[in-house]
Write a structure and sequence with these properties.
The protein contains 25 helices and 28 strands. It is α+β, with helices and mostly antiparallel strands. Strands 3-4-5-11-12-13-14-22-23-25 form a 10-stranded mixed sheet, covered by helices on one side. The protein is globular.
Length: 940
């Protein structure tokens, strides 16, 4: 058996195979107008590939491959260091994002092909790719990305197709991931190819995009072949049984263009969509009507829905409005299911073996691997994927990211300053990859999703930088179709034909037959199932029900369905210095992106914002927040079911702005009049934490620089939004009368003291793993679900309350716990992103109404305590006392990474494994995963 020292020797031997080709001539320098004032960071590290020997060394000795974790400490350090940040210390928390590599920072230089040179830096191992041809540039991007993230890309392309289990094993999280993405994008291979052909037909840029993508795939496959022959491919291929570690027999499947479509559909589903909750909305709305009657029920529904809340902050705040997605005054075509009749459409059929058994919770820690019971190199990998190659909950849609952009009129230098980035979660390796691309028609540096990195998706050009946040305006509608039987017999809710334009037509079925057997990494017993999507002309069926006793199916119509790669044209322009010479050019390029993103731009003189998305032109009578009758009178304007195209809103109808005093976005409302797809864009939204700090400084005549704007972001990122934005009003109500009970008074005082100290969730000192004001934080965590229920359920009644929690969760805590039901966890654990979804605005509006405040967009008569301030106050104090008695292990139940009751650990950020390399936990911060700090002092 191979001992640990032998494992390290093997690692060294395999590393010796990675000898770089002879160094080539130094690539020509590229104009860089940022002059060392551009910085960025992306934890944990650039390198996401571990050879078999490196994976064994990690399992046996805990060592990690080079550049797999060298950005994690910098990222973590900002939590404890932001208050003392200076211009001179930015480099302690971010890496230099200048073009090129200083000679002393060159780690290696090599040529994957004669027309491209790759230079990797010592600082972070980032590839700087210089092509003498355009094809060479994108070939190099594919080659370098495969060097860094091949196994991740392989898992994700299979997730996009709904085929993870045959590749990696039948672990529950693998099944969950493939089911979630297949449900959203159930494509046939023909449809994947159709989308490539469609883009290629879009003029010269479409043709060029196809060539770029093909060269990129060629680069990936060149690395696959070389690494396989050289035996330095990712060790996870051994763990999943695809390559024999001794004989090297096996195969790593090459990539195809259609894999890029599958990857794009995955990214769009997680980050770039909006809508699709119409059935849940209808159930909640009906429950209120049943409880209160139509008039009062509708008043309460409107306050919860917060479609156009007058108190909501907006990114565009210059007085203009951008109506989109709102409900008309008298809608037509609304379809409300009969109460109690809604059932979800099954996705899984004919389960066998382990697929038919109850899944057990994850037992392996994401932040590390348990020591193997053997030092045999192969056996040391046994069972490392028993909980899956991906973490539980990974496939859930994410609405994340933030941006702060201040115009030169309000900065010390007179040049715009930007601190922005996408909040894509925390993974090892990270979903994003860093690169610099320099070649004919391409000049950029920044981040891209691994597997789609033939262009930089978020980053900088020669004299401008850009980033995005998830917007989630409504691009998805739910159509109700009447079920029928082709032979004319009576239909039931199980019928698989529907009426479409006067005919009874069968639903199309798209299937995946997935089967798995135990492998080295995943011991899940043999099993199989069929994934079946029932598709109508509108889209996949999600629910079935009756309406006035007649059976119907609800189908999801998404404007980006069959158009997953159309955005490639916009991204191509972002990377082209000839295409982007101004803020206006950038906005026009962003308009070519069909996913829902808020785009931000900064150069030396201008700032800009544009909200992208394939925004639909709907019939004026349609309410997009409710299910819609499947009838031509209510279909999208100009809709063609053959290719899912329609008429879309014009450029000027999208929220947009140039040189506004400042822009902030944390997935908040884009502009007055623009409705969100859910109910979170209301009076209290986490964007308030950014907006208030920037606005107040500007209103006071203050100026920003890179340091002060970074500090705003960092402080907001460790602040408990409930403490800052809701707790003051709760205390106002409590303070209406003295508290006679000293124990209760002491509880209130703990909250008050924490609030006075900023309401932040930060350690007593870096590395202590204990929060300052830990008791007050735990008290609020335990109190929130109790007070929400106590405030609303008595007035709403249990059925309506439950229906509204089904529409939107009451809380999004840093840990994912504290959601009102014992053991109920929401979202992926340790994901960082917090306080986006929850009843924060609803609680605030109702409490302020109880206090007698004028509350625009409120509930009318208050709900808490039946509108009686004394009763509402009594409820607050009663639930506060209950919270104080709640055991810590109930507030923080623990998981495979954390002991029950460990508050800091429950919140801590964990880079969830997609593969075998674990990372250390770091302290919680609610912050972009990839982040840029930018100030251009010059322009072309």
């Amino acid at each position: 058996m191979l001992r640990p020292t032998a494992a390290l020797a093997a690692a060294a031997a395999i590393a010796s195979l990675l000898v770089a080709p002879p160094a080539t001539a130094e690539p020509e320098s590229v104009p860089d107008y940022c002059r060392e004032q551009c910085h960025h960071v992306l934890p944990p590290g650039q390198n996401g590939n571990a050879t078999f020997a490196e994976l064994v060394a990690h399992m046996l000795l805990g060592v990690r491959p080079p550049h797999s974790d060298d950005q994690l400490a910098k990222y973590d350090a900002l939590v404890g260091g932001y208050s003392k940040l200076t211009t001179g210390t930015i480099g302690e928390f971010f890496n230099d994002n200048s073009f090129g590599v200083r000679p002393e920072d060159v780690e290696k230089t090599y040529q994957p092909r004669e027309d491209v040179t790759v230079v990797r830096d010592k600082t972070a191992g980032i590839p700087h790719i210089y092509g003498t041809t355009r094809s060479g540039t994108t070939f190099g991007a594919g080659y370098a990305t495969a060097e860094d993230k091949l196994f991740l890309m392989d898992v994700m392309r299979r997730a996009g197709r709904g085929e993870v289990t045959p590749f990696a094993g039948g672990a529950p999280s693998n099944r969950q991931l493939e089911q979630q993405f297949f449900a959203v994008s159930p494509y046939t291979e023909q449809e994947l190819q159709q989308q490539i052909d469609s883009v290629a037909s879009q003029g010269e840029r479409g043709r060029q995009a196809l060539e770029d993508a093909q060269s990129y795939v060629d680069g990936i496959n060149a690395y696959i072949e070389k690494s396989y022959q050289g035996r330095y491919f990712p060790g996870e291929y051994v763990a999943t049984g695809h390559v024999d570690p001794i004989t090297n027999e096996g195969r790593i499947e090459p990539f195809e263009l259609t894999d890029l479509v599958a990857l794009a559909s995955l990214v769009g589903a997680q980050f770039g969509g909006g809508g699709g909750n119409e059935v849940q909305n209808a159930v909640a709305r009906m429950s209120l009507h049943e409880r209160f009657g139509p008039e009062r029920g509708e008043e309460i529904w409107a306050a919860f829905r917060a479609e156009n809340d007058p108190e909501a902050i907006t990114t565009v705040h210059d007085g203009r409005t951008f109506p989109y997605g709102g409900a008309p005054e008298n809608p037509a075509g609304v379809v409300l299911p009969d109460p109690g009749s809604v059932v979800e459409q099954p996705l899984v059929f004919d389960p066998t073996g382990s697929a038919a058994q109850t899944s057990e919770p994850a037992t392996r820690a994401e932040s590390g691997n348990p020591p193997p019971t053997t030092d045999d190199p192969v056996e040391s990998l046994r069972g490392i994927f028993d909980d899956g190659v991906v973490p539980e909950g990974m496939g859930q849609p994410r609405g994340m990211s933030n941006a702060l952009v201040v115009s030169g009129a309000h900065t010390e230098s007179g040049h715009p300053v930007a601190v922005f980035g996408p909040q894509t979660g925390y993974f090892s390796p990270q979903l994003l990859t860093l690169q610099e691309l320099q070649g004919p028609g391409i000049s950029s540096k920044g981040a891209s999703f691994a597997g789609l990195s033939f262009y930089t998706l978020l980053g900088r050009g020669q004299d401008y930088a850009w980033s995005a946040t998830t917007a989630s305006q409504d691009l998805i509608d739910t159509y109700a179709v009447e079920l029928c039987e082709p032979d004319g017999s009576p239909a039931t809710v199980d019928s698989n034909a529907y009426r479409f334009r006067g005919e009874c037509v069968p639903m199309q079925t798209v299937e995946r037959e997935n089967a798995w057997k135990p492998n080295l990494g995943d011991s899940t017993p043999e099993g199989s199932y069929r994934l079946v999507s029932f598709r109508t002309s509108y889209g996949p069926v999600t629910h079935r029900a009756t309406v006035d006793g007649k059976p119907v199916a609800f189908a999801l119509a998404r404007s980006t369905f069959l158009h997953e790669v159309d955005s490639i044209i916009g991204f191509q322009q972002f990377n082209d210095p000839g295409a982007i010479t101004s803020a206006q050019d950038f906005q026009r390029a962003a308009h070519d992106i069909n996913f829902t993103f808020n785009w931000f731009y900064a150069d030396a003189t201008d700032t800009a914002y544009f909200n992208s998305g394939a925004n639909l032109v709907r019939k004026p009578v349609v309410d997009p927040s409710m299910p819609i009758a499947g009838d031509p009178a209510y279909e999208w304007d100009g809709w063609n079911p053959a290719d899912n195209t329609a008429n879309y809103t014009r450029f000027e109808q999208h929220p947009n702005s140039i040189n506004q005093d400042y822009y902030t976005s944390w997935n908040n409302k884009q502009a007055p009049g623009t409705a969100g797809d859910r109910a979170e864009k209301n009076a209290v939204q986490r964007g308030d934490l950014l907006d208030s700090r920037v606005r107040e400084r500007i209103e006071a005549g203050g100026k920003f620089n890179r340091v002060t704007l970074t500090q705003v972001m960092a402080e907001a990122g460790v602040t408990d939004m409930r403490a800052e934005r809701v707790l003051p009003d709760l205390l106002r109500l409590i303070d209406r009368e003295p508290i006679n009970d000293p124990d209760t008074a002491a509880l209130v005082e703990k909250l008050r003291t924490w609030l006075a100290d900023g309401g932040r969730r930060v350690e007593t000192e870096p590395g202590s793993r204990r929060y300052a004001h830990a008791e007050a934080i735990e008290l609020l965590d335990a109190w929130w679900p109790l007070l929400v229920r106590g405030q609303f359920e008595p007035s709403l009644g249990a059925p309506a309350y439950d229906a509204l929690t089904g529409m939107m969760q009451i809380n999004q805590s840093p840990s994912g716990w504290q959601n009102g039901e014992p053991g109920l966890h929401v979202g992926q654990g340790h994901q960082g992103s917090a306080f986006m979804y929850g009843w924060y605005g609803q609680v605030s509006k109702d409490v302020r109404a109880v206090l007698g405040d004028q509350v625009p967009g409120g509930f009318g008569a208050p709900l808490c305590g039946g509108g009686d301030p004394a009763a509402c106050r009594s409820m607050l104090l009663d639930t506060l006392r209950q919270a104080a008695e709640t055991p810590s292990d109930q507030t923080y139940p623990g998981d495979a990474d954390c002991e029950p009751g460990d508050q800091w650990c429950a919140d801590a950020l964990i880079q969830s494994k997609i593969g075998g390399i674990g990372q250390d936990k770091i302290s919680w911060q609610n912050r972009p995963t990839y982040q840029q700090v930018v100030e251009f002092p010059a322009h072309r």
